[in-house]
Amino acid sequence: MRVLIVVTHLLGAGHLTRAAALARAFAEAGHATTLVSGGGPVEPAGLDGVTFVQLPPVRILGTDFRTLLDEEGAPVHNFRLAERRIQLLETLRTLRPDILVTELFPFGRRVLADEFMTLLKDARSHSPRPLVLSSIRDILASPSKPGRIEETHARILEGYDAVLVHGDPRIVPLDATWPVDEGIRPLIRYTGYVDENPEPLDRYESRGILVSGGSSAASLPLYRAALAAAQEITEEPWRILVGRGVGEADFLALRAQAPAHATVERARPDFRALLARAELSVSQAGYNTVIDLLRSKVKAVLVPFEAGNETEQRLRAERLKALGLAEIVPEAELSSRRLADAVRQGLSRRLQPAPPFALDGARESVAIAESLVLARPALHRRIDWSPVDEALDRARDRGCPIRFWWRDDDAVAETPGLDRLLALSGRAQAGLALAAIPAGLMPSLGERLRNERRVFALVHGWSHTNHAPAAEKKAEFGRHRPLDAMAREAEQALRAAREKLGRKVLPVFVPPWNRISPELARHLPRSGFTALSSFGDRKAASLAEGLIRVNTHVDPIDWHGTRSLADQDRILAGIAAAIERRASGEADRNEPIGFLTHHLVHDEAIWTFCEALIMHLVVRQIPLLRPDEAFSATNRIAALA
Fold first, then answer.
1. pTM: predicted TM-score of the whole model, two decimal places
2. Is 51 exposed, middle or buried (0-12, 13-18, 19+ CB in 10 A)?
3. From CA 340, how far away is CA 229, in angstroms rounded?
């Protein structure tokens, strides 16, 4: 595939560094990749296999993001902006990409909105239209004006297929810095952090203090404070790496101030190796710097960049401090004394192990983009609802009310997929039953469900472990184990689910792979269950006194083939047939039709179909029962009648 990535870095080089890492990952995956940079004229190293295009550069001074300057520091003339647009469109039209990635826009770079919107408008006119992705870091600067947030969301919904968030929601969820609404939430894809150098590091005995400050001149106060602090802390060697954005005169002045045990030199390409050998790092808290720190496992003092009311680095620094990984010196309090105190404190504390977090964001971004491209034919295929609509009309004419319910299997924790599932449930105001695996339940699931009024959990076996012989179909609660052992495990499962999920649990047993021995099914009321749910039309509404059965009937996944969306026409025919069986009396008309999903394995084709089906039922005003309604006393009475 052909991939076009467009980035303009205005202050430091972090945005360009991240975009270059994505470009390398796409190229390494075999895609013809072009990286267009509109910031300072610096070509990142290691772009083998990547075509690099430099637009007429623009930059800013300080934190004035509204005034674009040229290389000489003069305000940019409209001619230069027009020249950039022309070159950008020529690149787009020549390349005709399958995938177009805009770095930061539309969440930022509003000063270049005309340029990006011109690019997007032209891309939309191509046939086929490229997949369009927005690439953003973990923390954003949310605009103070609500109108700008609405404008950003409108641009996302109008022109983008997904938003790649290069972070880990376990460290900082996007919602922490940007008001993600239900409209754009389904488009959010967390990739993990983009590490420009994922190679493992050699471990050395650590010694000394390493000071770094990124590529801009904004760290000049940090360098000066560090040299003054070095006068107080003489028992450790200091190394100060000065970014290329600091002018030569300032650089030489820093060198002249350095005491004998401090080395001042320009930033080095082996920065991470130096970091791994240091006892302590002093730096700002930019995206790439923090990844370097986490990778290098070094103690850290962070002086986050906060000029112009910038909050990104401060929030990231506070997250690391909360994890016991860093000390913070607020930029407004920076002084040689304050920095020296923080360095002493940092040196004296024990290094805490970092929690697990995703660092393979570049390769994951490629995987997400590839899956979205592959799913596009299915995404854009027109759905012919007529078989379902005609069946619904016939059932209505026969006086047979049709109701649906929705079960999703295998939940254990809050995940981006679960968020998307719950967002769909909320948008449709549809009930949702999550069949949760008790042995694997994480606290995050209970916390996530606490305020979901229409969502309940069912008991999905115990650990979803197959106990059937290799030659037989998989089953955790089949006829392969003694009844007593399975009954004890079922009781244990209900108890564990209630401990983790509280009142969100309904006493409904959902056997993994929808298979259960008849003996255990009849025993379930003695284990505390009032209902059972598997797959297919129920033969009887009740299997034992006090136990009703409400099954699922429609599964959109091609489990034995592509493991993506099954043939769309066959799914719709299956739904229509389930309606017809109820209307004709062939199946129990009191049993609602169950829609079965597995959010953890959904690709974009499955998501798109599920969302379309749920919303079509909503438009047709077909009830999607809440789980407590589907397993209610009304159904129990009907079952026993």
1. 0.59
2. middle
3. 5
